């Protein structure tokens, strides 16, 4: 029997942000709230049409903290894990799902699920990737 993950909000910083291509398909109609937030200790790198968050002690990413509807939570998290290439337990080749402290604009730290680049991907991006200036995607 699989253990259900802790029911935390999800910090989104790329194509899952409101108004972006994957938000409607994966989160539309399945959330109760979203608010601007920051994730410290990570930076963004360009990917092929989407960004990767990579752990870096001095970095900061801007995105949204999304609160998923309780009745849809298990299905939404499973679909996000699939989208992000995560296997059982949230680990995968593209991304890993980890619990991190996120800072909503309203103040106070909140525990949230965050998809970070998996180890091999993070090493490659640090070596040859292009960082997203300003910590926000899409930029401009």
UniProtKB/TrEMBL annotation:
Q: Which Gene3D superfamilies match?
A: Gamma-glutamyl cyclotransferase-like
- CDD domains listed in its UniProt record: GGCT_like
Segments forming domain Gamma-glutamylcyclotransferase AIG2-like:
10-137
Question: By its UniProt entry, which InterPro entries does this protein fall under?
Answer: AIG2-like_dom, GGCT-like, GGCT-like_sf
Cleavable signal peptide: none
Q: What name does UniProt use for this protein?
A: Gamma-glutamylcyclotransferase
